[in-house]
Amino acid sequence: MALDSNKHEGASSTTPDQVDRQQVPNGSSDDRAKRHPRWTRHETFVLIEGKKVVENAVQKGRSRSSSALGSDHFEPKWDLVSSYCKQRGVSREPVQCRKRWSNLLVDFKKIRNWESQIKGAAESFWVMRNDVRKERKLPGFFDREVRWVRK
């Protein structure tokens, strides 16, 4: 009988914990997976290196993954990048790798565009405070070392 009273929506047996999960600030359900941890600097460098390795293998005309990637069967690009990262201690899924790369690229392009239009070194992205960057719709933070690795 307890089952019958709980199967109706809005039953008074909802625990505070269940209410917290249901009421998320943006109005969506919190049933989806929790947010992944932020990418560390090390993870980002491994991702960049992995993407380079995979793209070099593809440019050399390899339709199969190379021995450097530790696999002898064909895999989509981001699966290969994810495998490369995992072999180096960075446990990120292919979708996470693709999204992180995409976000890096968007930020990099914004910075590159800004830097091409500035008139003096004082306006450079690299010397701006974070709040000024945000006002100018630039990334609040972008690791300068990532900039050099990207080139």
From TrEMBL:
Positions of the Myb-like domain: 31-105
Basic and acidic residues composition-biased segments: 1-10
Protein species of origin: Prunus mume
InterPro entries from the UniProt entry: Homeodomain-like_sf, Myb_DNA-bind_4, SANT/Myb
Protein name: Trihelix transcription factor ASR3-like
Any Pfam family matching the protein: Myb_DNA-bind_4
Region listing for Disordered, in residue ranges: 1-38
Comp. bias intervals (Polar residues): 11-28
Domain of life of the source: Eukaryota
